Amino acid sequence: MDQVQLFNDYLRCKGLKTTSQRLIILETFLDSDCHFSTEELYLKLRTEYPKIGYATVHRTLKLFAECGIAAERNFGDGQARYEPIHGEEHHDHLVCTECGLILEFEEPQIEKLQESVAAAHNFTIDNHRLELYGLCASCAATAN
Amino acid sequence: MDQVQLFNDYLRCKGLKTTSQRLIILETFLDSDCHFSTEELYLKLRTEYPKIGYATVHRTLKLFAECGIAAERNFGDGQARYEPIHGEEHHDHLVCTECGLILEFEEPQIEKLQESVAAAHNFTIDNHRLELYGLCASCAATAN
DNA sequence: CGCGAAATTGAAAACGATTTTCAGAAAAAT
DNA sequence: ATTTTTCTGAAAATCGTTTTCAATTTCGCG
Ligand SMILES: [Zn+2]
Ligand SMILES: [Zn+2]
Ligand SMILES: [Zn+2]
Ligand SMILES: [Zn+2]
């Protein structure tokens, strides 16, 4: 299903309202498919829509996460990030600690091993986070 | 090597001073081997040593992390946690989102797969975090 | 020992990201 | 159109963390 449709349905079923701000934020968020902090998205929006406030961006991103349009991430730089979920598979992240580059990966074998670890401890897993921090190829080259 | 010795050596080589507060905090930290937030350790210390301030606990935990006596963790509850490293192997965590129980595990196969993922993307890994969130056995039983 | 330079301490203030408040504006229901 | 409800944006509040600063403590040196 279309993301905008999905969002509108969510708003309706929760008794919330469709507003121009929410649609603008959604569009901008989906358009540039990356790992936005609230601040970053706010700044990007501000160039074209200076009237939209920070608080609205924040509240709207939370809404996206709530209705499954976005995933909240935290890469340890002290600010939450949100990325669009286009119905794709789950993925984990490689993060360059030098330049901030974020790569995504999927490793089914790791996912499977996580399950068996959880089972061995009688845990029921709801979700997990796996992040590999280090240097990307170009930062490693520059660093010598 | 003894942890206290290691700490004293670190202080000396950095031109820092050995103080009663630092030794008390270290002892308390090592004694109860768990994943302390600054607040938790501060409160625990306060019962026996009401004079020790929060800032000192905070600064001392940072020191521990610096010299390799402690590892800083973050389990997504909005506050940093520190756990003693007794020279053991690296481990990852299972976190119960209901009761806060934290279990530790090691899975060499996962570690190995992480390496190969990084290699495939030309990343050099410095460190990583893997946390599995869900319900522990007893919380799962209670929840029905 | 005691002195003095240098580091440490604790209370309070500053900080930065996030969240809430509130009065006016906008959207949906009637 | 009127009423009700939600939303918005600016500003304030919050929360964990970090810094400031004057008073205290440590420690090398005479
Ligand atoms: Zn995964
Ligand atoms: Zn991603
Ligand atoms: Zn690991
Ligand atoms: Zn641990």
Your description of this structure?
Two copies of one chain form a homodimer. Chain A is globular and about 45 Å long. Chain A has a three-stranded antiparallel beta sheet. In chain A, 47% of the residues lie in helices and 23% in strands. The mean pLDDT of chain A is 95. The first copy, chain A, folds into two domains: 82 residues, Arc Repressor Mutant, subunit A (Orthogonal Bundle), CATH 1.10.10; 52 residues, Dna Ligase, domain 1. With 144 residues, chain A is an alpha+beta fold. The interface between A and B is medium-sized, with 33 and 33 residues. Strand 6 of chain A pairs antiparallel with strand 6 of chain B. The complex binds zinc ion (4 copies). The site of one zinc ion has 5 residues of chain B, from loops. The site of one zinc ion has 5 residues of chain A, from loops. The structure holds a DNA duplex (30 and 30 nucleotides).
